[in-house]
TrEMBL record:
Enzyme class: transferase
UniProtKB keywords: Nucleotidyltransferase, Transferase
EC number(s) recorded for this UniProt protein: 2.7.7.7
GO molecular function: DNA-directed DNA polymerase activity
Name by which UniProt lists this protein: ImpB/MucB/SamB family protein
Domain of life assignment: Eukaryota
Organism, scientific name: Toxoplasma gondii GAB2-2007-GAL-DOM2
Amino acid sequence: MLARARDTRRTIPVVVHLDL
């Protein structure tokens, strides 16, 4: 879980790309 929280910055751009 902590590893994912650290990759939040990478998850945000990914989610935005999918939202596009």
